[in-house]
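As described in the Methods, two query proteins were run sequentially through the folding procedure within a single session, without resetting any intermediate state between them. The first query and its resulting structure tokens are shown here.
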Amino acid sequence: FHVKSENKKTIWDTEEVPEGSEFDDTWDPREQPEYEILFKQQVGTEDVFFGMSRKDVSTACCEDMVIKIKLPETKFSDIALDIQDKVLDLRTPQKKLLLHLPCPVDSKKGKARFLSEEELLEVTLRMTREFDFINFA
């Protein structure tokens, strides 16, 4: 039996802790808002009518992930949003959402818009997957 850590009381290495766990705070009483995750792909006429690319309807051929979060009775100025490669952290005075994303994203190339009439925050994130060069060369 070999212990990797210098401190023998530690039960895991820092490499074993998943990204985003620093945001976890179970004591926070704010409720989680309703949300949905959609996948979006950019297609042109060569894809739709001629089938010239290798794209199909699967999520493997999608470039973007769209997360729609319902935020009733919320002002745009009250929204705090932090995006990491695998984690979305959203906080408002009434709601809190810590979402571990289904695949890694480019945290620098995302965009968000708040649709005040629908009380909906729409976050679009560009996915970064290991073999995207096959689909999107």
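Immediately afterward, the second query was submitted; its sequence and tokens are:
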Amino acid sequence: MSGSIASYDQLVRQVEALKKENSHLRRELEDNSNHLSKLENETSDMKEVLKHLQGKLEQEARVMVSSGQTEVLDQLKALQMDITSLYNLKFPTEAAGVGRSAEESPPPPVSHRDGTGDLGRATIRMLEELDRER
């Protein structure tokens, strides 16, 4: 009988230890969930800022094209190629143009869910048109 009491006491201790571990894991899961929500909100905010900046850049590019200021646009094109190269280095499995030069690589995707398409696609097209016109 003392053996069954000892095994019962062991089971009680194990159950208590499992309850503590379960509580700890639930707290950790809740913390991770809150952190993930915060990161998702920040990402969404960043996407909005990037969209706004992209729109302003495209507008500025149109103004520069109409006024003949192509030097700055050449610098922007070089910067875009640098950004694309860095993206390809950081995310090689996601990069669409792995193995191609930065000139041939399409810009990295911004998001597949929100339908915004490629980063600066319109800007790149305008810069390429300028390049062809020269």
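The two ends are 97 Å apart (CA to CA). We note this only descriptively and draw no conclusion about the first query from it.
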